[in-house]
Amino acid sequence: MQPSDKFKGTMKFDPALLRVPQPAPADLGHYLVMIAGAQPGLRVEIAVQPVTVGRSHEQTLVFDDSSLSRRHAQVSLVGGTIVVEDLGSTNGTYVDGSRIDAARGLAEGALVTMGAQTFKYERHSREDIRRSEELNRDLDKASGYVKALLPEPLSTGPVRTDWCFKPSATLGGDAFGYLWIDNQTFAIFLVDVSGHGVGAAMHSVTVLNVMRQRALPEGDWRNPGSVLSALNDRFQMDRHDGMLLTAWYGVYDVVTRTLAFSTAGHHPAYLVAIGHTEAEPLGVKALMIGAMPGLSYPVQHAAIPAGSVLYVFSDGVFEIMTKARVQWTIADFLPLLTAPRVEGLTESERLYRAVNEVAGPGPLEDDFSLVVATFP
Amino acid sequence: MNMQIAPLAERHVKVTLAGRLDTPGADSIETRFLASLIPDANNAIIDMSQVDFISSMGIRMLVSAARSLKMRQALLAMYGVQEQVNQVLELVAIHQMIPVCKTEAEAQAAVGLRVA
Known about the structure:
Strand order of the largest sheet of chain B: 1-2-3-4-5
Number of helices of chain A: 5
Shape of chain A: elongated
Largest sheet of chain B: 5 strands, mixed
Order of helices and strands of chain B: EEHEHEHEH
Radius of gyration of chain A: 26 Å
Order of helices and strands of chain A: EEEEEEEEEEEEEHEEEHHEEEEEEHHE
CATH class of chain B: Alpha Beta
Distance between the termini of chain B: 31 Å
Largest sheet of chain A: 6 strands, antiparallel
Mean pLDDT of chain A: 90
Structural class of chain B: alpha/beta
CATH topology of chain B: Transcription Regulator spoIIAA
Strand content of chain B: 25-35%
Helix content of chain B: 40-55%
Low-confidence stretches of chain A: 1-9
Number of strands of chain A: 23
Oligomer: heterodimer
Mean pLDDT of chain B: 93
CATH superfamily of chain B: STAS domain
Strand content of chain A: 25-35%
Largest interface: A-B, 25 and 18 residues
Helix content of chain A: 10-25%
Number of domains of chain B: 1
CATH architecture of chain B: 2-Layer Sandwich
């Protein structure tokens, strides 16, 4: 950049220098990315060697999928075009929903379905793929760290728990836990940091560790409102990279069978009592943690009859797009809470599978965090 | 998510949002949204009548703006919120930071713009 003669001290620069360079055609790879099936997100480059798909172990991609033939289809790069060919499969190979009866060249974005496996054809710079895989490894490490901090399910005692935590592909900021405050008082909590990625995960881990270690001297752990106020004062957004978080916190008294609870910008938890066909919302209306200092959070109480089940979950559980591209809300999810149990599945796993059944192809967009607490 | 910004008066602007204020929606407009309000400490009203979905990231964007403006003695208000979006905003008690008004006139009054 050189100073202009006309405008002393004014720097002129060529806008062309600001344009992001596009990768040369030779640097673009051909990829099939699985969007539904055994391994959503699986990415396979189609290069010199054709890729075969089927159930038998001689194939390049092998899936234990009874709707696939042993040798089902082949995908190859022919003269710069990706070509898919059915290899005489029983159930056929489909491109964009139509069964093919001869080798077919694919347009970018085409969907290829073989059995229960659906791939999308994409073109990407190999450098971008390398960086994306590096980021995914970092996200996997962060996700692994969050999982390592989650408590073991409780199968005995006056409170039984099971949970399901499925981080999204970009890792949201969910975390949850429960602990005995004393031999009579049991606390359950769930937090959701706004945003995705390592930053949100780090923030959720910080909050989670504060809760696990009860490192809030200014909070009374038996008083949900006190805990949320203390968290709010500790985690103001201007000191934490603009991040906010929502939270649900409840304290169960084993002797009185009463649950005290409060929420900060979070949807309610839901209680289903034996013999009831509807779930009771347990929540209050209050601002998210970190938005404004000095807030107080109201506390409400609920009786917990014997055999009741409490569901505490993040918005990633219900804010999904269905296969028909319809936005789900919490009202769509709630009927699942009173649906019959499935033998052999924990309650949280049952609900995760039910939500996945409704959701469009590919991984869920946000973390799926669900804690189920049963009070015998 | 689409966004239009129009001046109303000195240090008063109107922001019109249209679409989904979810993570990609908020990402697509947040920089421009904050840049149009914060540096000049513009009081702002937000027309939410064409926003049909809001997620936590959208709420974060609005809260962040309100907080920064408050530090600069400026105000933010929204109006015309659709019912399903209003349910979410009520749940998070956003009215504690940003008035949720029924009409544009009310929103203008909430940010101190005298209605002619």
